[in-house]
């Protein structure tokens, strides 16, 4: 019986394809995507790629721009002040002239685990591949000139960024231990999250002994000097290897956040030999394995490029730093670069729960461990430091999503404690680091008031705006409260359930019915502590830190009630008015495809009984905004959030994050097979699918008719088959049995 | 003219005495003092001394107890969970048996910059001296046995302390670079302030090449292995030097909080040679210089021991870590181990302002720089991490004290901004780290209510008590507000002055006149948010974290109104009743000599016109509680706070910290000369002083009659002469012209 079962499972599995061939890391490197095109493993700690131009790009990379070298730590898809860009290595020829070592690029190539570029100024082909914590460089020198390599321990990105978000050097150190071993570190603070210090240690080895060397500190270069200790300045070293007949020089650079000794151990453990191609192939194989968790059929190669590159981008971050946490020692996994959970909770985390449950389990465990040691789960974290919280405490959504979907191996008791802490305990002065800013007022008033506190400002003091982002906070806190309520219910905590269930309707306290714009009535609106509305405001007023809404306006945030679409539809005047409002929104200027607040909004049609309009909207967005071109991602990819949105919606459903519910959207493939782990598969079939046959006529789930446009995770958790019959015209599919909302009659 | 002036100054200066001979570092090592008896420079980063018994002592040292080795970082006089005890070195003979290397001590010797002990189990005399960041060990082996030394990179104090205050290892690393150079580090978190990670790096050199060696990690010892990288475990190394004919082996250990490279640079810079006695003599000279800032005449040798040991203890902490800050790079000085300012602001900081103004300037600059980079000035800080705040934001007192006394070279604009931040911006969730917990309520109600918030507790969540220490906070916030008011006035900020002046009377809002105990009426009392008094409370209820009062009861805190003794005296029923109350207090069980809250209380007699009673009280305390015995300090010395109290009061005056006012107390010396820096001196003469002639009959200041029992810093800032004529009976001295109070008519 058991044997038969295994055979059946194997039989049903698609073959492992070379899906890496569909990944185009340059997608999203132009336009606003800000993705990192260099070499990385899935969730890899080392992200090895070029730092270009004035080193002000978030990913280090700037298409076609002058390259200063290749550094080992990067993030992908981010905005704001850059982080990282540490431990930069650059080959060159001729004399060492500090500040002048740089080259124009040509023939840039990028594929999973590999990056190559011709440094035309020096006639050097630079290639790089990676393991989890090691960068492997192969420099092929075209000219018979003096071959040089420099290691810059003081380089970093975003040194001159504005707004308090610049990275600031604390210090650096370099030691030439032998003619083939170099150790050191860079210590930096600041960047987007205004974080404290982080230290990137390295141990670098050459396959060719250096014939001469020198080091620098600040502006002083010292030939033949073997070490520069840390006195708060930038340090580095250069090496010459002679006009060798052997044209390539290889370097391996182990990275650690613990010590240079650990970096060397990482190097020796992960890449003991010098076989560049083998390391590259291992990286390709690792990527192939994770890409093969979704196997699609009936898509054009171009669509496959878009799709698998999106999967690739969704698995670059957060970063697995297990064993590399300098802040505490525990047996839990450790992840960093949650950048930000405000972005990733919506699609990325649910995607991992579905196709990489062990990975998501480890991520959630690391979030809970951060709570154990630091008192709060992060909303954002980078460089081992939590901050900045953009809206709600959306880690609550991540924990609830895992809990409700039955992810095993997580200490949910502590996770629940962490969620309740978010919901109850004010995080403190700057209100942008932990938990929920303004929570005391939210608890007291059932909304976050749009006022500044203390009112009586000192002329001396730059008083933080305690109730900034009051609109975003109120609607997100409400959604977060529903996440808590559901976990409470699942744990049998009835009183907590009732409490947070009630709080989950708090968004309605900022609903101002009297406001009208473009024929649409009712908007989320700033309210003062005394209950009076702010009059000097508009439906299209978006903002950032310090404003009522964060990165979207009232048009967008007035749809952000994922926990209770039923009540939202009622507030808007019923299903028909609501659908008109959605149409007005998506065809008007206020829908922003390039940011996360409206990720879920296309699904809202389905809550009004109009699944086909959700489908139309999603198809329209994908066709207009996602391509295989270098500018093929509509906004900052935000650690792969845009990409994860695409993956779900092309497969054909989309999660209501923090619930165990998926909404059926727009199947783009004739067949998709998702590997759920443990030998379980979810097969999604769209019969008769074509450009014209794009509407679902009917559906079955596990062979039974599916008379609704949504399903629960529990219905597919042990594998399943979701079959759609497609046709050229909208059907009644999804008209009845609407998806669940908080205010459904029980 | 200029030359003549110099000659005159030199002529007036007392000769430099070998005052170190009066320092007995063992005073305070028994009883509750918890002082560190090992080798340190003034404010020295390296504090090299023995770690004994089960390594649970705050100073590492336990009199007569088994010694495990000598570690390089310690604090002095502290309570709660220990910090530090890092990088332990131990000589031994015979085979290396891990866990068994330890020895009984004999012939312990301690003097400034020197510690020695015979390790009787091995017949080794261990001696140690220090520079600022280097420990110098000299081990003289008595037997012709195999000579061994171990370096333990994983050792620390307080690993098994309770209450969340244990130190926890994060990791450690050790590298035997050559037969004479060893590098590594220990990374630790936790301890009393529940701090984040700190890393103590070291570079150790031997004057004798090791003949064999080994390393360990966790429980695995590896002979001939030269390095152990950091994998989150304890590491160390042992060395054998053969049965040498040369009996002493010397080791120098450079310490750094930046890197082992910096540690080596520190070592090479500070102690380039191998002359132990020279380094020792340099340390003695450095101590002599700072001890000679107060020269006393007419005291017994025993009294000199008590006095100069107190001066010595008052200059062990905070620790000068300039150039050793791993969190940011700036040009400002950097000090750590403010442990706690709640203790030191009362006497230690004012003492330094008086006799080491450049040192105090640097300390204040470092506090302001911490505000610049971290958002708040610390109340406590250790291991590069702020926390825990015990009561008010007493850094405000330190800045005000410096400002009002005209200390130059400080950015008071930023300092004022930091004070106002304390007074206005809530510090956040755990309320024990930065600023003023409960400040919103204090601003709203004009007191901190004695209630817990949120009221509605989750059964899951261990809700922090947001309004814990509400009594201590209210009275200290009021005093802190007066500090701010005075600085505001000095800066011409009239509106701020009026605002904080008003708030400085907030202590009175917790004054409950109806409470009577032992014939005394009126006490500071817990009040709810609605204005009602808590009934379930008592005048003698002291506490700690989470209670209404921190480390004292209402008897003590009801006297803590240093800013407005006049109003306090009125509240207590006028001067006569007040003096009776003081008598009842000091002769009853509620006066605690062993802690800081009552430091200023003896001076309160003077505010009622009874200077002689202040004098009697101070003399009585000193005679009963301060001796030259090993238990000669009445409580935890608290970074020298008890000691600084003694120094002031024996010289004859005591500061009202955060004001520019000194109260005349109990001159114990016929003559004391204080070096105020810049060639200025304050001479204090007590004519006719004897055991019986202990009452001031009259006084002159700078040759003019002083018709009051107090003076301002400005009156002696440029030097001066304070002359008392003593007699056998109380006089009217100080009856008129009472010291200034907030509520004096202007």
From TrEMBL, chains A, B:
Q: Which GO terms describe its molecular function?
A: carbohydrate binding; peptide-N4-(N-acetyl-beta-glucosaminyl)asparagine amidase activity
Its GO biological process annotations read: carbohydrate metabolic process; glycoprotein catabolic process
Which cofactors does this protein require? Ca(2+)
- Pfam families associated with the record: Glyco_hydro_92, Glyco_hydro_92N
- Annotated Glycosyl hydrolase family domain ranges read 262-728
What UniProt keywords are attached to this protein's entry? Calcium
Q: Which domain of life is it from?
A: Bacteria
Q: Provide the Glycosyl hydrolase family 92 N-terminal domain boundaries.
A: 22-256
Question: Which InterPro entries would you find in this protein's record?
Answer: 6-hairpin_glycosidase_sf, GH-type_carb-bd, GH92_a_mannosidase_put, GH92_N, Glyco_hydro_92, PNGase
PANTHER family annotated for this entry?
A: ALPHA-1,2-MANNOSIDASE FAMILY PROTEIN (AFU_ORTHOLOGUE AFUA_5G10520), PEPTIDE N-GLYCANASE PNGASE -RELATED
Instruction: Please provide, in alphabetical order, the Gene Ontology terms of the cellular component aspect for this entry.
Output: cytosol
Its name, as the record gives it, is: Alpha-1 2-mannosidase
Subunit arrangement?
Monomer.
């Amino acid at each position: 019986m058991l044997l038969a079962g295994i055979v059946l499972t194997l039989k049903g599995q698609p073959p492992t394809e070379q899906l890496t061939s569909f990944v185009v890391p340059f997608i999203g490197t132009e336009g606003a995507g800000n993705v990192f095109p260099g070499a990385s493993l899935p969730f890899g700690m080392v992200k090895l790629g070029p730092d270009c131009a004035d080193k002000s790009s978030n990913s280090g990379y700037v298409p076609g721009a002058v390259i200063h070298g290749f550094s080992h730590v990067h993030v992908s898809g981010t905005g704001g002040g850059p982080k990282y860009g540490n431990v930069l290595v650059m080959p060159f020829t001729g004399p060492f002239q500090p500040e002048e070592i740089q080259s124009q690029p040509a023939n840039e190539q990028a594929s999973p685990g590999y990056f190559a570029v011709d440094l035309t100024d020096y006639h050097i082909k630079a290639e790089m591949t990676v393991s989890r914590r090691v960068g492997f460089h192969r420099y092929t020198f075209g000219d018979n000139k003096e071959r040089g390599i420099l290691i810059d321990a003081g380089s970093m990105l975003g040194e001159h960024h504005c707004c308090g978000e610049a990275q600031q050097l604390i210090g650096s150190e370099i030691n030439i231990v032998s003619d083939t071993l170099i150790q050191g570190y860079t210590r930096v603070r600041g960047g987007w999250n205004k974080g404290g210090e982080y230290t990137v240690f390295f141990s670098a080895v050459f396959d060719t002994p250096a014939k001469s060397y020198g080091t620098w500190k600040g502006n002083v270069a010292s030939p033949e000097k073997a070490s520069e200790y840390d006195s708060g300045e930038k340090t580095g070293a250069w090496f010459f290897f002679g006009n060798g007949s052997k044209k390539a020089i290889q370097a391996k650079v182990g990275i650690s956040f613990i010590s240079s000794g650990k970096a060397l151990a990482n190097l020796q453990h992960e890449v003991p030999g010098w076989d560049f191609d083998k390391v590259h192939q291992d990286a390709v194989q690792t990527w192939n394995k994770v890409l093969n968790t979704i196997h699609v059929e009936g898509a054009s190669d171009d669509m496959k490029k878009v799709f698998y590159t999106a999967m690739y981008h969704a698995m670059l971050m957060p970063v697995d730093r297990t064993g590399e946490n300098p802040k505490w020692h525990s047996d839990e996994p450790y992840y960093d670069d949650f950048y930000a959970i405000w972005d990733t909770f919506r699609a990325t985390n649910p995607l991992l729960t579905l196709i990489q449950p062990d990975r998501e389990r480890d991520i959630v465990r690391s979030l809970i461990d951060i709570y154990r040691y630091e008192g709060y789960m992060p909303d954002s974290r980078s460089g081992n430091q939590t901050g900045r919280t953009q809206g709600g405490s959306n880690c609550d959504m991540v924990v609830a999503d895992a809990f409700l979907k039955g992810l095993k191996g997580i200490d949910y008791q502590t996770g629940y404690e962490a969620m309740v802490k978010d919901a109850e305990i004010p995080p403190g002065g700057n209100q942008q680091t932990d938990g929920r800013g303004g929570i005391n007022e939210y608890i007291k008033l059932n909304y976050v008031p749009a006022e500044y506190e203390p009112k009586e400002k000192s002329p001396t003091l730059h008083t933080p705006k305690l109730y900034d982002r009051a609109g975003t906070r109120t609607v997100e806190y409400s959604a977060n409260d529903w996440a808590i309520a559901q976990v409470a219910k699942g744990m049998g905590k009835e009183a907590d359930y009732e409490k947070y269930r009630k709080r989950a309707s708090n968004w309605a306290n900022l609903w101002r019915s009297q406001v009208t714009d473009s024929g649409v009535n009712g908007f989320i609106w700033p309210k003062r502590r005394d209950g009076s509305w702010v009059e000097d405001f508009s439906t299209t007023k978006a903002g950032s830190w310090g404003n009522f809404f964060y990165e979207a306006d009232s048009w967008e945030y007035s749809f952000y009630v994922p926990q209770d679409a039923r009540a939202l539809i009622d507030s808007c005047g019923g299903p028909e008015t609501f659908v008109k409002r959605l149409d007005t929104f998506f065809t008007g200027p206020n829908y922003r495809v390039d940011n996360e607040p409206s990720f879920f909004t296309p699904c809202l049609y389905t809550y009004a009984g109009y699944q086909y309009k959700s489908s139309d909207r999603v198809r329209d967005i994908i066709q207009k905004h996602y391509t295989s071109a270098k500018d093929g991602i509509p906004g900052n990819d935000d650690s792969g959030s845009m990409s994860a949105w695409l993956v779900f919606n092309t497969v054909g459903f989309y999660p209501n994050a923090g619930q165990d519910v998926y909404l059926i959207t727009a199947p783009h493939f004739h067949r998709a097979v998702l590997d759920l782990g443990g030998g379980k598969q979810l097969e999604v079939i769209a019969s008769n699918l074509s450009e014209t046959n794009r509407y679902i006529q009917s559906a079955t789930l596990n062979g039974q008719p599916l008379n609704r446009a949504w399903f629960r995770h529990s219905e597919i958790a042990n594998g399943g088959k979701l079959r759609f019959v497609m046709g050229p015209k909208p059907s009644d599919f999804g008209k009845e049995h609407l998806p669940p909302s908080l205010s459904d009659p029980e």
